[in-house]
Hints:
The complex is a heterodimer of chains A (698) and B (402).
Chain A: H1 10-20, H2 22-43, E1 45-46, H3 65-80, H4 89-101, E2 104-110, E3 141-148, E4 157-165, H5 172-188, E5 197-204, H6 209-222, H7 228-238, H8 241-245, E6 254-263, E7 274-278, H9 289-302, E8 306-309, H10 319-338, H11 348-367, H12 375-378, E9 383-390, H13 401-420, E10 433-437, E11 440-443, H14 444-455, H15 457-483, H16 492-497, H17 500-524, H18 532-553, H19 565-590, H20 592-608, H21 612-618, H22 621-637, H23 639-651, H24 660-670, H25 674-694
Chain B: H1 2-26, H2 31-34, E1 39-46, H3 54-69, E2 77-81, E3 116-117, H4 123-131, E4 150-157, E5 160-161, E6 164-167, E7 171-174, H5 175-187, E8 193-199, E9 215-219, E10 229-233, E11 238-242, H6 243-253, H7 263-268, H8 272-275, E12 280-282, H9 296-299, H10 331-340, H11 345-354, H12 362-375, H13 379-401
Parallel strand pairs in B: 1-2, 1-4, 2-3, 4-8, 8-9
Antiparallel strand pairs in B: 5-6, 6-7, 9-12, 10-11
Amino acid sequence: MAEDKPKPRPIIRIGLFLISHSLLVSVVCCTAGVLSLLLLPVLGKNTYISENALMPGSARPMLSNDDVSEGERFMNQILRFDTMNTGMEIPEMITAHIMDLGGEVSHHKFLPQFNKFHPLHFFLGPDAGTIPENYSCSSYGINTVGIIRAPRGDGKEAIVLVTPYNSLKITRAEALSLGIAYALFSLLAQVTWLSKDIVWLAADSRHGEYTAVASWLRDYHTASFGDLKHSEICAASNLSKMETMHNSFRHAGTMAAALVIKVTNRSTEFEKDALTIYAEASNGQMPNLDLINIVNYLAVHAQGYRVKVEKIWSLLNVWWLKSLGQLIEMLGKLAGSLNPQWNFGIPVSEYVECTATLASSLYNQALGVPTGPHGAFRDYQVDAITMEISPKFSSSLNNRQYEILLHVGRLVEGVVRSVNNLLEKFHQSFFLYLLTSPSRFVSVGVYMIAFALLVAPLPLVAASLFSDATKSNPDAEEDKSASKPASTLQPAPTFTSWKWLYAAKQVLVVHLWSAIVTLLPYFVDQIPDSSPTTKLSIWIVLSIITLLFLDSFSGSSFPSTIRSRDTEWILLKSVTVAATFIGLCLMSVINFATAEIGALFLVPMCLTAVPLRLDNKVNTLRALIRGACNVIFIFVGFPVTVFFVLKGALEGFDNMRFGDFWNWAESLWAWNSATYIYMCMVHLPCWVLCIQTLLHRF
Amino acid sequence: MDSSFKSTTLISIFLLFFCNAIPSIAFGSSSTATTMHTNNWAVLVCTSRFWFNYRHMANTLSLYRTVKRLGIPDERIILMLADDMACNARNKYPAQVFNNENHRLNLYGDNVEVDYRGYEVTVENFLRVLTGRHETAVPRSKRLLSDEGSHILLYMTGHGGDEFLKFQDSEELQSHDLADAVKQMKEKRRFKELLIMVDTCQASTLFSQLQSPGVLAIGSSMKGENSYSHHLDSDVGVSVVDRFTFYTLAFFERLNMYDNASLSSLFNSYNSNLLMSTAYYRTDLYGRLLEEVPVTNFFGSVMETIHTDSPYRAFSVKYSKSKAEISLDQSDEVEQRRLKISDVPQELIDSNITDKHATCPVTRIWNAILGRIEMMKELDSLVNYGLILMFLIVTGSSWFSS
Lengths: 698, 402
């Protein structure tokens, strides 16, 4: 009767079964994870407008030829200011025009923000940056803000149009975007159907487009008066009387959506005018998919534009992608012939295009750096995108400005009218998605699968390694208890069962080190007059020194009394894998794309890690291959090499310098990207621990 | 002495006759079926709010205009509008509502009386209106003061689904709620006949629980079908009317108050290709033939008016000459209407029974009985009863006289 143990519950039995076959499971899962990532373009769905209230395209555009001519005149007037002395000419002109239309106008002055590394400011959101001590009055950027109040609206919501321009040297393209906004503004000042206020921000991009928009948004939302105290000093010196009148900050309601309108002079390779949508904001946040949908819908169906999103061009000619696409097309055709309902196959060219777009989407989200001034809006939970208009192949802006004004004006009018119909914030459609083309997307429910499959083996392998280590223990235990007299005071069995704590301590020390490495650039950055190369070298050297110091300080990782070298590395690997799993899962919550890309590097690396000496000892072909794989994974897994390999693959190896990595990392922390934290605090310690496993001595 | 005795026997015999006849007639069929159609009410409900549901308000207002044009006065129309599109900031034409892109007809003119508006349009208020269970403070103008002679048109539009209709995007009226309310109305004798017209997706499912007699229901679509909007007004930027309502209105635009189009002609006018859904009507609870019921019985306020010589002496009225106040060229209609007038006398007969001392001429009662007998289904049994009675009378009288 006593042997009649109760059968464990099925879920436990399944768990035990998976753990005992962890090698097979991890191989299957990782392969499936990579495959499903490659299948995402096929699984992408067509976008659809999910919010009923939007009704894009249901209203006839009202932008008339008069409005367009008005905009063109305005644009030509701006271009006549060929010399900019104070940078005040354009704001004053815009002000006068808006006043004529009956709108409200105000000027917003701001100083450039010097992005510095603030180790404790991650995730805190936008903050008041430091204002340099030695500013001069002429270094102010001046945003001109025009507001039209909705005649019968409640004034609680607003739609923002942003047109960045460089007040020091305005180009024709920038003037055209101002002209578009002005034509629209003159229309919207007359219409009766506005329910939301319209805010036109003519952002002075002399200190960068993002800075201008971000500083205006900061002042808009914090209700502080920004840099006004400085401008008051300046007011006496060079601002006209009219200027001081418009200095008070004007507010409209909560922003429902924002559109950044840009025109470029670069012509596209297509027969149609093209509209490029940039949507990625900081840390991989995306605007609601409905906003992209309405822009895409109106641009394609109403104005005949070709809509693009960024893609990685170099992927278009990769042979293995093409052959994979052919395989998928063939399978799709086969499935379609078996059952007409299964029409998942897509043509090769479409597959490759979708993959290139998806890769770009994934990369931009993973980087966590906004792709344009719209990123500043996302920090305040405002949905925003940048629309970049480029004229069609072999044509320039000069002779087609009227046409572009008309079409883009009508497009933006349609988007404004559609958003104007909105009753609540954008909430119906997706926020978590990857674009595979402007009209296709992969939602979070689908792309999670690839990541889940990739990380699923980690806890299984950790558990199986741990059980291996504890199983091999009793033998060692018996040996020791045999060799030692029974009078030993320490309760050996309990002590050994806690042996994994030593491995955990080692992992903890490495993570502590990684935290220090994360903070080091703050100090390195203080060194004046040093090139990125030296800064990077200092960073690396300091990191190595700290690691060695911490290693020796924390002492030998395992106490010699229960030294059993062969289980030691197993436990270390087990704890490493568990820690990596936790890190990846945490990161997937913050920025999914980073976690996905990170998992592609980390999972094979930490799953295959086996001491090289062990492989040497066994000396079979399998062991040799495993060792080689380990070395390759470790080499590829180092963040610096990842960066250079990726950069080389995407942009070519020609003009690459060692310091580029520093610049890249600097841009990451300047944009408060969580990818930096991930890289230093999840990826790097895992890499170091894997090296420790590889170089384990018996 | 003898003659008086005879008269008393005659009365007792008549009483005996009534004791036999009345229970089988008056209690056999429901009492409201026997009352006359005396008034018309309309309850018009738009259940959805938000700008993009402009068309639902336009639907309701169009129907409001139609029933008003056909003669239902404002005080007998309960108009429930869940939102105010006319004053929505997004409306390009402030204070105007159109149901066609030609903008010829402003539905929201001066003469619109909305009884329940905005957030007052709830399932609770709707059911209160139907069942008449109002709080005391609710004014008469917001009450459905119908009686057992009322024909009620209940029109509802909004977003619906399988056995429900959404109210205000926050609650729903389910089919059994509606059926329950209608049953209560029936119990409380709040209507004689009720026409429920619903323009939503899967409208037919809303009628599945109805049980009360005298209810006719028509919906824009069958289960699993959507009801679509008819056309988009690209000037206002929204769809302005639903297909079902559009074709209903198109039918009524050809009619005036005196037209005699039947309900079946309305129901047959729906073309499922044009509607892009199948109009569904439920007639199993309704007693009359649709071909014989003019649409103005529900959508207008056309009914027989009884000509009385002296309005204050109701019981001295002659029934043989009852006239509908309809223009003379509609004589065939008058004839048709007269068929139904046979309903009329019974009410008065009932009151005669309760008041035996009333000075009512025997001949009139006899006429009334004849009229009643014409209505009877089981004529044979009645004839048998009558023969037995006659036999008794003959034997009795001969025995007395001998």
